[in-house]
Specification:
Distance between the termini: 26 Å
CATH topology of the largest domain: 60s Ribosomal Protein L30, Chain: A
CATH class of the largest domain: Alpha Beta
CATH superfamily of the largest domain: PurM-like, N-terminal domain
Number of strands: 11
Strand content: 25-35%
Largest sheet: 5 strands, mixed
Radius of gyration: 17 Å
């Protein structure tokens, strides 16, 4: 099996990470949001990359450059993600930069997980789920973001063959990576070139025979790619 390209595979272990800079509660941050939300979205991305590699997280490493005061808030944001999917959060460890006080917030969250299944190349149809959003849109249009809870339910019910998060490169770029198709013209109604920020949209491969059940769980934001 080849793991998702933003993951490192070490035997059965999968390591994924995401980071944020200039986003948080410091005066000089470019985007002002609670630290808890910053950590939640960074954890979301790392979790989706775990799922893309067929892994389930077993430990969290928190790299906190925002000062001691942010540690507990970041931990709360990490736990929010696991609460959303209905599982107990893995143990959290890491460190905080306390020798130097940075003017802007900075944090990285790394998940270490055990691979539980192989993500083989199958013949299902590819869909998008969610809407590409970035910046303030992530906060003001949160109802359009791909739901981790619904994705987890669909995964547990065996409805998703493969999952592939979309990030700053946009839907089309990720489609080309996952399929190798560099000439495809997208029929999807979404903007396939804009950034999806913290993976607000994902690509899903679904067996056509299970599409009705997948639609029942994921709803109208499930859209065919071609």
């Amino acid at each position: 099996m080849t793991a998702y390209r933003n993951a490192i595979q070490l035997g059965d272990w999968i390591v994924t990470t995401d980071n944020s800079g200039g986003i948080g509660e410091k005066t000089d941050d470019l985007v002002a949001v609670p630290d808890r939300i910053t950590a939640r979205f960074a954890t979301r991305v790392a979790l989706l990359e775990q799922w893309a590699a067929g892994a389930e997280p077993e430990a969290v490493l928190l790299h906190n450059f925002s000062g001691d005061a942010s540690w507990d808030r970041y931990c709360d944001g990490i736990r929010d993600v696991f609460d959303e999917i209905g599982v107990v959060a893995p143990p959290i460890s890491g460190s905080s930069e306390t020798n130097m006080s940075l003017r802007q917030s900075a944090v990285a969250i790394t998940l270490m997980g055990k691979q539980t299944c192989e993500s083989n190349v199958l013949d299902g149809i590819w869909y998008t789920y969610g809407t590409p959003l970035v910046g303030e849109e992530v906060l003001t249009r949160e109802s359009e973001i791909a739901s981790l809870a619904k994705l987890e339910k669909a995964r547990r019910n065996g409805l998703i063959q493969r999952i592939w998060p979309v990030g700053s490169n946009g839907i089309l770029a990720e489609w080309q990576v996952v399929t190798g198709d560099t000439t495809c013209e997208m029929a999807n109604p979404l903007d396939v070139t804009c950034s999806a920020g913290p993976s607000t949209v994902v690509l899903l491969q679904i067996d056509p025979s299970q599409l009705a059940e997948a639609n029942h769980i994921l709803g109208t934001s499930l859209r065919a790619l071609a």
